[in-house]
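User: Working on a comparison across species. This one is NADH-dependent flavin oxidoreductase from Planococcus antarcticus DSM 14505. Can you predict its structure so I can line it up against the others?
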Amino acid sequence: MSNTQKTTLFSAIKISNTTLENRVGLAPMTRTSAIENGLVTEEMAQYYANFARGGFGLVMTEGTYTDELYSQGYFNQPGIATAEQTDSWKKVVAAVHEEGAKIIMQLMHAGALSQGNRFNSTTKGPSAVKPKGEQLAFYGGQGEFQIPEELTQAEIDQLVQAFAASAKNAKEAGFDGVEIHGANGYVLDQFLTDYTNQRSDQYGGSVENRIRLALEVIKAVREEVGNEFPVGIRISQAKVNDADHKWADGKAEAAEIFTALQKSGVDFIHIAEPQAAAPAFGETGPTLVKLAKEHGKTVVIANGTLGDPASAESLLNEEGADIVTIGKAALANQDWANRAAEDQELNAFDFQKYLLPKATLKDFEYKALKVKN
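Assistant: Here's the predicted structure for NADH-dependent flavin oxidoreductase from Planococcus antarcticus DSM 14505:
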């Protein structure tokens, strides 16, 4: 694919009042490489700076926990809940900005999927429903998930305020925006999902009720950071523990979800699908990206098997996405954007190249970090 055929991928775009030099973003990816107490390391700063140096216009952080209660999902996950954690992120922001890219923090509460929390051994979720599947061995988990305790109203209120306070911390650290993690089976997605949310109060039952918590978080975050600071949300159907999940009412449910997000005033919606270019429901029909653009009426970021530059460009031009985020292909090519722009060959992503027997994903990601492109 010639450079002239990638005119959209390498054109500028604005999220709120923040301008990105191109439409290539680094996808948020769990790394579990922080210090045990949630502080960010110099190696992490170098890791994120590598992608900025490699031409990515936007860098998105791994999911970062928001309180010292139940939000942490994995041991060695970074936090943004304290002043010390906030200060530790400043070196990451400075390193990325020095390379000319923008950086957005992803704020995460793991909910019932927490498998490594140094503050609590119990988990909390919308209902006492055991998550499907097993804990992720890549991140140190073992066996089935435990049955979570149902969040009380007071705990829900605390959860909302923790998201807001963490967003304020991210702004103080110098980030260019925040992404509220409402995808992949974590707590906001647990409230949205019919089978994990069995509540009979204002947060359960209808789609309107099940998305209520996400909207409350967006509202509280906006009140803390103001109207000029970009605030977005990540949404998916698939979960880390249930890859095949689909919204029960298909396009009608998608329209209701994205319309509600549009009314909330988010500056972007980040769609995460296993195949971003595939029909959202069944064998035919629109992609979730197209439905988000139609009903969300805001900047749409797309993630999911877009490591081929031609596929990324096509999704921008044909499905209405405004930005694409790259995951596995970025780990194999920290200069993916520069290579794509110059029509250079890309390294193939191969787990076996990095993962030795009994190795963990942490080992893999550290090895990826050390690749200098």
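For your comparison, note: The domain at 3-369 is CATH 3.20.20.70 (TIM Barrel).

User: Helpful, thanks.
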